[in-house]
């Protein structure tokens, strides 16, 4: 019997003072959380020096009608691997549907569809991902590392990348300026 996937479909927010500069103000939608670990794709920071058209050209795909938008830093694992978080109006064999977030695809087919104007209505692209072994994320959450916010598509698609951390806290009813970097033990 598998354990509950209680974080799947939620958005992880890095707590202040978590101690890992790779995740400072991280915003990570979680697409898998179970017995074998957890997997999410960061959307809280942009990658400098690379745009969507650069990725398309690298894959020998003509940009066509695709906007030349920024690429997000998905996480410290496989930083050259691309993921598209998108609305559920497009899918292929690589697509993972995760409510309420939407969908995640990692094939070249979605890039071609976007370039051809036949892709999902709403999407963002990240390079890299965040991954945790079995139990690792649970342990980090107990040590004041992460907060699991509701999975709100508006946060994914409407908030600006560098403002998503604060926007997600605000949507949870929390003023992030009041958060403390340390907690005590009883």
The average pLDDT value, as a whole number, equals: 92
**Residue ranges: pLDDT <50 for 5 or more in a row?**
none
Whole-number total of structural domains: 1
For the biggest sheet, the summary is: 10 strands, mixed
Helix content: 10-25%
Give the overall shape: globular
**CATH architect. name:** 3-Layer(aba) Sandwich
- CATH C-level label: Alpha Beta
Sheet-strand content, in percent, reads 25-35%
Organism: Croceicoccus pelagius
InterPro entries: AlgH-like (IPR003774)
Family: Belongs to the UPF0301 (AlgH) family.
Pfam family, one: DUF179
Short key terms for the protein model shown above:
10 strands, alpha+beta, VC0467-like
Describe it for me?
- This protein has about 190 residues and is an alpha+beta fold.
- The chain has a single domain, classed as VC0467-like, CATH 3.40.1740.10.
- Helix content is about 20%, strand content about 30%.
- It has helices at about 50-60, 110-115, 135-140, 155-160, 165-170, and strands spanning about 10-15, 25-35, 35-40, 45-50, 70-75, 75-85, 95-100, 100-105, 125-130, 145-150.
- Strands 1, 2, 3, 4, 5, 6, 7, 8, 9 and 10 form a ten-stranded mixed beta sheet that branches.
